[in-house]
Amino acid sequence: MNRLRILLLAPDSNPEGVSIPFVTYSHAAALAHLHDVAIVVGSASEDRVRRAGAPFRCVEVVRMPALQRMQDWGFRHIFKSNFDSQAVTAFGYPFSLAFEWYAWRQLKHRIFAGEFDVVLRLVPMTPSLPSPFAFFLRKGPIPFVVGPLNGGLPWPRGFSQLENQKQWISNLRNLYRYLPFARSTYRDARAIIAASSQTYSEFAGYGDKVFFVPEPGISSSQCVDDSRSPEAGAKLDLIFVGGLVPRKACDIALRAAAPVLRAGKAHFTVIGDGPERNRLEQLAASLGIEDAVSFCGWISHADVLCRLRTADVFLFPSVRDNGAGVVFEALANGAVPVVADFGGPGDIVYPEVGYKVPLTSEGEIVSRMEKILAGLVQDRDLLYRLRQRGMSYARERLTWDAKALSTTHVLNWAVGRGPRPDLPPPKVLCSN
Q: What is the pLDDT of residue 202?
């Protein structure tokens, strides 16, 4: 495979961070093992990216100190450092444009001198923040590729877990199409990579230049052999990992697990913390399962992986999750996932490796998950088969290396070095 010379835009990439900054860095580092990657980062990320030691050809740093101070002040004082606020995305729009404008001024002479084969924008991941680079490169000399993009997941109706979490700005999301550079970003991009079925559906009108590559990934080192040796008649080991916020729906998990927990056939470990913890502990008590549920709070990532390696079932009924990298980790470590069929988890889990329950109503989800857990208590051979297939699936298709290879196929097509890759989404959702 010929190495591409990639100019990669990743302003907030951070190997020491979590969520999108870590996902972005891991994807970029995997690409750097296959290609000559010049990564473009903001000054706040420079030291961390250099310290991590991925084999980038070079690290280009865009410095805009005054604007960076303004953005940091707004994030701390206006949004109270709340990464979950959708208004933060809108607030970041002018700073995102400024970053790419500074990057263009800094690198355009090298682009026109033929130093790069393609520009790939990894961040921002949301489709609602457009890219001036697509407009700048509309007449060449090299193609522009954007993605993986994720976001815009609808807010399902009828779930109490979402009643207080939907923010007013959600109703204005589609206005991004009228922002400067919004149309040119996707019109002039040579390829659009979508990270979810929902986003793929949003850009389906762009036809053959839209591809599906899932948002998260896992390190190959997490793909270990199964070390479980459960005793005959051992309890089913259930686990939930995530923030204890309403949309993660840990309450649905507790209600679904209650029958097997009360019968003494299972134990449930809840890893995570948040504003819902007290209410969830009270719910466990009201269901009569408090002695069978362990609330562990936040623990180290290494300890999370150890717990997943000993768990039987990963119960994750989150009713709105774009990516859910923890589902990847559960599969890789042998915890059979039982998830809501919506967003990122619904894109990744399929019947041969786990269960996904339709997002119908709270009562219906609880009932279906109850039946699944009761069946697994009785059929440990099925549990074993699902576990083994899930671990193989993660090893072959869900690693950062696998993700980088899929992205490579798209980039090769974009620069005219290969056929169009067959990368459809597992399903297509309809926007509300």
A: 86
Q: Give the pairing of strands 118-121 and 36-42.
A: unpaired
Buried b (16+ CB within 10 A) or exposed e, 84-111: ebbebbbbbbebbbbbbebbbeebeeeb
Using alpha carbons only, what angle is made at residue 325 by residues 145 and 261, rounded to the nearest 5 degrees? 160
- How many of the other CB atoms lie within 10 Å of CB of 221? 9
CB 311 within 8 A of CB 202: no
SS3 state of residue 399: strand
Hey, what domains does the chain have and what are their CATH numbers?
5-217+399-414 (3.40.50.2000), 221-397 (3.40.50.2000)
Whole-number Å distance between alpha carbons of 424 and 31: 21
Confidence of residue 161 (pLDDT cuts 50, 70, 90): low
pLDDT digit string, tens, across residues 217-257? 888 888 877 777 666 678 899 999 998 988 899 999 999 99
Closest Cα partner for 91 from 105, 106, 76, 71? Answer: 71
- What does DSSP assign to residue 247? G
User: 345-371: string of b/e by CB count within 10 Å (b at 16+)?
Assistant: bbbbbeeebbbbbebeebeebbebbbe
Query: Environment class of residue 270 by beta-carbon count within 10 Å: exposed (0-12), middle (13-18) or buried (19+)?
Result: buried
Q: How many CB atoms lie within 10 A of CB 329?
A: 23
Annotate 340-377 with DSSP letters as a single string. EESHHHHHH--TTT-EEEE-S-HHHHHHHHHHHHHHHH
DSSP-assigned beta bridge partners for residue 61: 41
Residue of 181, 190, 207 lying closest to 127 (CA atoms)? 181
Paired with 294 in beta bridges are 269
On whether the CB atoms of residues 322 and 151 are closer than 8 A, the answer is yes
Quote the mean pLDDT of the chain.
Answer: 87
Tokens of residue 233, six digits: 């008649």
- The DSSP symbol for 178 reads G
